Amino acid sequence: MPGKLKVKIVAGRHLPVMDRASDLTDAFVEVKFGNTTFKTDVCLKSLNPQWNSEWFKFEVDDEDLQDEPLQITVLDHDTYSANDAIGKVYIDIDPLLYSEAATVISGWFPIYDTIHGIRGEINVVVKVDLFNDLNRFRQSSCGVKFFCTTSIPKCYRAVIIHGFVEELVVNEDPEYQWIDRIRTPRASNEARQRLISLMSGELQRKIGLKVLEMRGNAVVGYLQCFDLEGESGLVVRAIGTACTLDKLSSPAAFLPACNSPSKEMKEIPFNEDPNPNTHSSGPSTPLKNQTYSFSPSKSYSRQSSSSDTDLSLTPKTGMGSGSAGKEGGPFKALLRQQTQSALEQREFPFFTLTAFPPGFLVHVGGVVSARSVKLLDRIHNPDEPETRDAWWAEIRQEIKSHAKALGCHAVVGYSESTSICEEVCILSASGTAAVLNPRFLQDGTVEGCLEQRLEENLPAGCGFCHIPYDELNMPFPAHLTHCYNCRKQKVPDVLFTTIDLPVDATVIGKGCLIQARLCRLKKKAQAEANATAISNLLPFMEYEVHTQLMNKLKLKGMNALFGLRIQISVGENMLMGLASATGVYLAALPTPGGIQIAGKTPNDGSYEQHISHMQKKINDTIAKNKELYEINPPEMSEEIIGSPIPEPRQRSRLLRSQSESSDEVAELDLSHGKKDAFVLEIDDTDAMEDVHSLLTDVPPPSGFYSCNTEIMPGINNWTSEIQMFTSVRVIRLSSLNLTNQALNKNFNDLCENLLKSLYFKLRSMIPCCLCHVNFTVSLPEDELIQVTVTAVAITFDKNQALQTAKTHAEKSLQRASTDNEELLQFPLELCSDSLPSHPFPPAKATSVDYSSFADRCSSWIELIKLKAQTIRRGSIKTTVTVEKASPVGEGNFRNRSSPPCANSTVGVVKMTPLSFIPGAKITKYLGIINMFFIRETTSLREEGGVSGFLHAFIAEVFAMVRAHVAALGGNAVVSYIMKQCVFMENPNKNQAQCLINVSGDAVVFVRESELEVVSTQQPTANCQPACAGGEVTT
Amino acid sequence: MTSELDIFVGNTTLIDEDVYRLWLDGYSVSDAVALRVRSGILEQTGATAAVLQSDTMDHYRTFHMLERLLHAPPKLLHQLIFQIPPSRQALLIERYYAFDEAFVREVLGKKLSKGTKKDLDDISTKTGITLKSCRRQFDNFKRVFKVVEEMRGSLVDNIQQHFLLSDRLARDYAAIVFFANNRFETGKKKLQYLSFGDFAFCAELMIQNWTLGAVGEAPTDPDSQVDDMDMDLDKEFLQDLKELKVLVADKDLLDLHKSLVCTALRGKLGVFSEMEANFKNLSRGLVNVAAKLTHTKDVRDLFVDLVEKFIEPCRSDHWPLNDVRLFLNQYSASVHSLDGFRFACSGCIT
């Protein structure tokens, strides 16, 4: 009997009129937990009843405390007939179960009814008395903290990052049970809400147990999802990263642990840079000691570290400029060996984190992803969800092997998703292959990590860009160059990742949101035929999405993508692909080449003219974008400046090679005989369409920036005004013009118009940035496309541009001249990047269930072939153009006056998808918010149609989230995410239904300005954890 | 490609003041879009008409949802669904309850009943205010009337407390409620030159001086007071006014009164001679108006009578405003010295 739950019902207000005769309500409340129910007295004839009940006490197992929600039902007493329900409140009491979070839940909760929405509010007080339980075989995991935030939470320090935890539970969906035929929609909705609440409680408890087994005390980056599989059941699954976290009691303790190293990280490379000898002096070992000696923590000398870390983390100091590959091999082997001990014992070395403590991330390989198409079948035994487990295990195995192929031992920024249509389900997983610092994975403590930092010889700001794989044994064709930052190691020409931009990365200019959008028609089919059709389409979609991303990236003049998220949704008769990422220009990577168009029929004069016109347009766009995003990489070399010839020469050479290659094309195409037709078709229409779509993307209006990462690269002077919003659009396609092209256009317009609308609506916040822009696309019905966007608009101060990074980056690039010639030898090719790896189609035997259809996208080889083909086809070619950058210098304001803060925050609950609140410090995490709501209506027209219905529902969901946070004593939700928004309508019947699932972390924050008043002595401004790179430094 | 559904929901509810005004003015979405296009917003922001349409629709939907709460402003403050900063809440309420001068002149003093509501389309055509806006304004009057009708205490305070209006707007509503309750006739052609502000000024003075709340300064037994303190005229006071008749009926008293006034005003009035000549008529007019007020019918015609019996004679003699004021002040002051009369000035009407 380890827990006592106490509940008090205080009062109600704004209740609906339940008795038409008197225009009043006789309300009473039922409080239910598990199988125990208490009732309050009936408060006669009042719309604002005062119950002031006694404390209702439930004595329960902590297992139940974790699983069960507290259920409060408000009813209208009726003497003669059955009592009418007014609505319900579900309260997740999990936040009360760990010591540091909330101690009491007390406040006004909206009373929610699945048919009528919010109907008044009720004031409730909830407390839990926990008894210590030392039972080793316990089933509960009270005390394990959960965070949705995908970085180490702000007021904690990571002692150990243990790794991946996952779990899933399945059940029958109440909506599809036989009883649903006879019960009311309300009863069915409530059964569903309750079941999902129970299941997520159970899931969280089971994950908690796994964490305890790993000796962790928290789950970070917790992502829980529902799969509404319809007839076949309901799956609730979750992934996360188990950690051992230490609460930072005072800012003083915090400083040495995390913050100052991060500061170093930023400054070290810059101080190192000005040494012009770095490159030419060849082996330059001694340099490192000198450069690091200035660091504030110099008391930690080199010698203090253990020898093995020395070995593993001293980069190839003796390595000359060209020998990276050879010497890199053995070194990397060593590093791998080292981390093996830490990672090998784990089944999946995955991390759901997207931002990391400094020094954690050593190298990044590239995006790895895997997809699999499955046929759903009824889950026969809910207690043994083996099939679903096996499916995911398979996919994870694939991801793991892809990471290995990239020379990486871990996957970071890992996430999983599904898309379901009828009985077909696409399972997707993606992440970023990476090499991690083993120190964090073992019992490395503060000292360890600090030493680590000091020993780290990898130049910060570019280290993560260096390739982790062997140059001579590359997993895919890529063009490597020497790092433009340190000149020592090799970097790829482009870098795609699913993580946030590391704080120490050196970026030039600003970033921007880059999206690839794609629709493909698919024949309607049943079961296996359908699954086959989808599997056949997937590799082409992936490839095209990828090509689009690459082209758009080049069009923006950038060379790296962060926060890449590719979503493929399946519908009855089409597939949709939507990829979002934030493009940036990494100083360490080479300047991206331009885009060159070449026609297929060079004889046709007008066509040629058209092509050259397009080419001009593209070049103009690139130039414009470079200006817009302030991408002014420093001049490559004096020689080039001196003689403007190289550029034209370069280009002409390429052009020549292009025209010459026509024979080659024919020859090579022959070797792929059956694919010839495909090539021609694309060349004629799709290629033009691609080019057009490239040019139709309009940049945001001036004063606006957008990105899908936590913070906008290049902006770091945020002010405190934030506005989180959700926008939903559904369009109906006219069935007449259903061609791929028309579809693409429609989809593209939909997304572009949506963005335009957002910019217009938020124009009063200019200058501002839309951060964490999260697009979700779904195909609810045959001709419907639904796009949901959640993002936060944050204002920033234009005049406080803090551009230190930029200037430093410039400096560092100043000496990037010597390799320039070399660079120019590489005509950058369209797809030569660290592309998402694609699985080999596994034998059917791997699929446990016979009826399930496991066909994988495509194999590596196939994909590479495909790529090669397009390049040979010559529809779009990229070339290196050496841009003459105008020196940046003006506008580098160092003015750092403290930002203006919002005056009153009384009663306001902020919501943000970010892990931080600009201009404020999070002082306490109160627990995870994970809520699931269903809303249904049978009077759609009366509620303002579909828009009115959904608008009201989303507003209500926000209200309920805010109310729960306020009741926990919090004033904000961070890492807020709307994971699901399933909308179904039946206008003929005047009905609609919507399911929404949201989650986030409830927190208490204090404005920095207020904080300073409280403790002027403490260096509060420095308390910002490293991961909050975007926070305003006061 | 048609948009089936298009919504935007912010954690903080976005309120566009311009769109709010258009909505309050009763424009349809398409009219509002057209007006916004004309305002040049597209050029300023580089947006397209489709964006504007979607934005306007969205705001209209939000306002529509807020309207229910605006009917009882304290609800807007306590509701949880829309997170709106207090300053914006105040703006929403103030603008929602604001009314058009032209409209209020049409309904001032009329019974706020269904019958009047039916005439709103006539008022709409006459004033050029959209019917929708007329309905909102009329419903606002009626709602405020219904809520404060049965309440005791200061009318302005009650309105302020239940509708969270600014002091100025609450006073205006007090006047509207007061006029509607007493059904003063304000629509006659003779009264057309008077603005709402003029009537509101009178209403304020009458509430201060003529009502139960004002007269029964020390309500000894508040529970027995069934009448509304500020809304109804004090019947006893009206009864007492009858006694003023002696001022004109008794020849001696009339002369004495006249001489007192004349002595005091000699040299001060530009129209002294006219005043002296007309004193008897004016005094009779005033006293008769006052004495008749025991009849409900005559109460309703108070302003018509005052204009006919007092203001028009003065105007025909071209009395300057200041002289009228001086005369009336002296007129009532002299009465006090005459006898134990108490007389509350009927106010200064321009």
Automatic annotation (TrEMBL), chain A:
Pfam families: C2, YbjQ_2, YbjQ_3, YbjQ_4
Cellular component terms per the entry's GO annotation: cell cortex; cytoplasmic vesicle membrane; plasma membrane; ruffle
Low complexity bias: start-end ranges: 290-318
Compartment list: Cell membrane; Cell projection, Ruffle; Cytoplasm, Cell cortex; Cytoplasmic vesicle membrane
Record has Chloroplast as a keyword: no
Transmembrane residue ranges: none
SUPFAM superfamilies recorded: C2 domain (Calcium/lipid-binding domain, CaLB)
CDD domains, per the entry: C2_KIAA0528-like
Main location: membrane
Polar residues composition-biased segments: 274-289
GO molecular function terms attached to this record: calcium ion binding; calcium-dependent phospholipid binding
This protein's record includes keyword Cell inner membrane: no
C2 domain: residues covered: 1-109
Region annotated Disordered, chain positions: 265-330, 637-668
Keywords: Calcium, Cell membrane, Cell projection, Cytoplasm, Cytoplasmic vesicle, Lipid-binding, Membrane, Metal-binding, Protein transport, Transport
Any GO BP annotation: insulin receptor signaling pathway
Function: Required for insulin-stimulated glucose transport and glucose transporter SLC2A4/GLUT4 translocation from intracellular glucose storage vesicle (GSV) to the plasma membrane (PM) in adipocytes. Binds phospholipid membranes in a calcium-dependent manner and is necessary for the optimal membrane fusion between SLC2A4/GLUT4 GSV and the PM.
UniProt-recorded name of the protein: C2 domain-containing protein 5
Species per Swiss-Prot/TrEMBL record: Camelus ferus (Wild bactrian camel)
Taxonomy of the source species: Eukaryota, Metazoa, Chordata, Craniata, Vertebrata
Gene name per UniProt: C2CD5
From TrEMBL, chain B:
Cross-referenced InterPro entries: FIBP
Top-level taxon of the source organism: Eukaryota
Pfam family, one: FIBP
Record-level GO cellular component terms: nucleus
Molecular function per GO: fibroblast growth factor binding
Record GO biological process: platelet aggregation
This protein's name: Acidic fibroblast growth factor intracellular-binding protein isoform X2
Organism encoding this protein: Camelus ferus
Classification lineage: Eukaryota, Metazoa, Chordata, Craniata, Vertebrata
